[in-house]
Amino acid sequence: MADINMENRNKYALITGATSGFGYEFSKLFARDGYNLVLVARSKERLDEVTVEIKNKFGVEVTPFECDLFEKDCAKKVYDKVTEMGININALVNDAGQGEWGRFVDIDLQRMLDIIQLNISSLVSLTWYFLKDMVTRNEGRILQVASEAGKTPMPLLSVYAATKAFLLSFTASLANELKDTDVVVTALLPGASDTDFFHKAHAEDTVAYKEQELQDPADVAKDGYEALMRGEDRVISGGKTKMHVFRSNMMSDAAAASGSRKLMEPSQSNDPKRTSPEHDASRKEREHIESSAGSGSNDL
After folding, report:
1. Domain 10-204+214-238 indexed as CATH 3.30.450.20
2. Which stretch is the leader sequence (predicted)?
3. Between 23 and which of 7, 18, 35, 221 could a Cys-Cys bridge form, CB atoms 3.0 to 4.6 Å apart?
4. Is the model's pTM score more than 0.90?
């Protein structure tokens, strides 16, 4: 069991999307630094697995909370539960998010509205609930997991990219509003990463997934965590991502969209780099989803 940082032994971090990808890695980073955790995800089975793992490894208090942020009242349920338990959230990580691959006119409207609910409405709600308490205490940190997609139009992932553009603008505005307080709000911009995002977005056959190098979720989470602790407004994770963002800033929207589309087109490669995540927690998430789907459950 890791030694607990006594300075943080009474602090709590709430992390959404905590059972795979970045969320899982954030959970380990906060726990390693002595924070107690409130973990939010949809799958009770995966939440229980991650809870036991982190408790055993780091010796911190871990409270799993099964809730579906696709649902409009989930954010309030999370806040009410935490308040009822008498917990002050010192750090909030809004990680949960999804996309859907395909032409806008071909995607089911409700699926796109659900993505907007998850990526924007639930995130804004969680931010509002917990930020008000942080401002009252004049203490707290919020990490918003955005994406390099928020800096460029992205055909075939149009709604997802637009939600991340909203998130970047929203977070920059909050950072300015809070500049005279001790509350930090940080936006994290990763590039395409080895999470289960592509599987959930039905984008596994794309050039980006099959042919490109993907970022390690642990490296991305480390960049975000360290920037949050340093009090930075924004961090772009990885040299390749920095290059993409710089190039997008220099291009017209039309040119940037054209470049993005090439990565989202179906791959023609006969020798793909991957067919499933190498990241262990993300692979387990996929296996759970596939198992649940086989039993009639819809966990996508």
Report:
1. no
2. none
3. 18
4. yes
